[in-house]
Predict the structure.
Amino acid sequence: MRFLDWIILVLSLVFIVGYGLYKGRGSGTIQSYLLADKSMPWWAMGLSIMATQASAITFIGTTGQAYVDGMRFVQFYFGLPLAMIIISAIVVPYFHKARVVTAYEFLEQRFDAKTRLAASIIFLIQRGLGVGLALYAPAVVLSVILGWSERVTVVIMAGVVVSYAVPGGIKAVTWTDVQQMLLIFLGIAGAFATAVWLLPSEVSFGDALYLAGASGRLNAVDFSLDPNNRYTVWSGLIGGMFLMLSYFGCDQSQVQRYLTGKSVGHSRTSLIFNAIVKVPLQFFILLTGTMVFVFYQFEKPPMLFNKTAAARIEAVEPGPVSQQYQEARQKYDQALETRTTLAHRLLEERRNGNGDPAAAASDLRAANRAVEDARRQGIEVLRQTNGGRDYDDTNYIFLTFVTTYFPVGAVGLIIAAIFAAAMSTISAELNSLATTSMIDIYRRHLRRDATDRHYVLVAKTATVFWGAYAAAFAFFGGRLGSLIEAINIVGSLFYGSLLGVFVLAFGFPSVTGTAAFVGLIVGEIAILLTSQLTGISFLWYNVVGCVVVVVTGLLLSRMRRSEPRLP
Amino acid sequence: MPVLLQRPGRCYPVELARGGHIAMAKLDGDKPPFFDTWPRLYAFVAAWLVFLIVLFYAFTRAYQFLP
């Protein structure tokens, strides 16, 4: 980072805080602080919804994913437009009509207090873990790539978010989300343009696509029916749709965005905006990662993208481990040279119109496999030195590329976009956690007759609490080690059963509160068993959980109706 | 200790069901941008998704290099 990069980053942070404070003025009532007086236009909500979903890891991880695995991750989002249609047509009118502040409040109107409490607690646990990770994960990557202190990065991110989210409430969060999403758009477009511009002069964009295709990186669509294959059209359309229904229909961090709409029409339009823009946007981000992959066909990529890990292994004293690592490095360097030669040959044959493209592509893929094998060998040596802990540097690939090759100014823009992506997610999550804590727990069960002023104060205190909690989680995240991955998986285990309860609420008038509550518990057990006993992709957990909750709820309600009534 | 309200057998609230219909009726006047009705907009979104999948499929096939 050079002086101009710092200027861009600092100015963007100062502008976001100032803008958030300005737009959040006059949030003195519950309706204003938590629902923006239902005054938001559709485009602001639409961008806010998108910004909330796009975390920093989405930005840097998705590009890294394309580098490692190609474009197939785009299929994960195929279910999103379908989910948006369903939520827009069914869920939004009910939430608006019920005049609720949280999605879980609706569950009490429909079922009972215990179902609402159970759903609220599930949300607080799941989102509480999520906000910690949303702060911790980018802080780790930025600290390694830029050499910043992890704790300073955490404090800056959390401090900036809390400074506008606490006084301004949802108005500040939504309007800053709009700016942040625009900055993210600019960052993505800038990254893509620069990645293409950095390609060798003799390599056109068409050549780059040709090379990426030959290396098997343009695999955007896969119609195979294998349930263990994580990303296929079917897992995206069905599993992805259930996941997105859960996220946008039952997760307060998203529901609260579209509850601020001026009307049902504005809320619906904000969701439809997402339905239209999200898939092409993800395709574009993945294509940027693919361009990074093509770039590294002609430039030497580091064997380990995590600089700290690479420095650690290189500092190992001469001995068997050091020798194994050097062997892996030599093998890696040779494989890279072969790959570059084959890439040039493939393009030359393309230009001259001679040779056998399929055979040349097959050779290039073999060379890519050789590079990956050598890299894996190096990673295996690294694992021996760190007690067998897994190593994954997918999130470091894009930022390594940016900080090594991007011109001055562009680096600042990308880092600012990553900060924006992190802060937009964290602010919405803190806001929704505070809202659920206050509305579903405090106001419902602890103090029901206080003034608006009191409740706003409680909501602000809750925002500070959740911000401090997220920072504490991020501070001690390093010590959690592999637990982080476990926490990430645990987070994905709750959505299916939550969705099942909402499906019962909207679709089955005969189901009682107790049946829904028991269904929720049984559904959660079913998801846990599925994750432990089968190897199916996590996208299907939501389908399993939802179906089990719905079937259990319906069966229990039917049994209750068929019981003989006592005189 | 919070007191949980128990309302056994509570079913679909009539006012909510009726409210849902009212909201739907009101939405007829709350037109979506560029389209006359919401179902038409939803049909467009579904068609857009199909178009993207076909486009991505063509993209995948165009660069597959099968022998």
Observations:
- The two ends of chain B are 70 Å apart (CA to CA).
